[in-house]
Amino acid sequence: MSEYNKTLDDIKKTLGVVMQQFKVIPHDVVPHEWAEMKKYSFSETKIPAKYRELIGLAVASAIGCPYCIHFHTEAAKMNGATQEEIAETAFLTRFTTGWSVMLHATSVDLESFKKEFAQAKAHLMKQSKK
What we know:
Elements: H1 3-15, H2 30-42, H3 49-63, H4 66-78, H5 83-105, H6 110-128
Helix pairs in contact: 1-2, 3-4, 3-5
């Protein structure tokens, strides 16, 4: 049996179905792509699954991918994310991308920004120790 077919068998065993995304990409990359997906989407890693999926949802939303938005929303729910956490993720995605646009459009100097944030960070750290 080829490595491709062994991988398809593992996908079916893991997911109960071989999703078409694995059928439309070159056969020689399927084993590698599946290994990464299986590890980072369906196994334990350094980042707990719920948070990984919320991160995935933020990225998917920022790039506007309806496939990824659906996958990561459902996977986040499957891993215990609440509707409130999903809503907060949506806000944080808009908040971060919005500030990115403003900083870039107004040409805020990056080195000055880093220095100012270092000051803010020191102040916040000092405040949190009180």
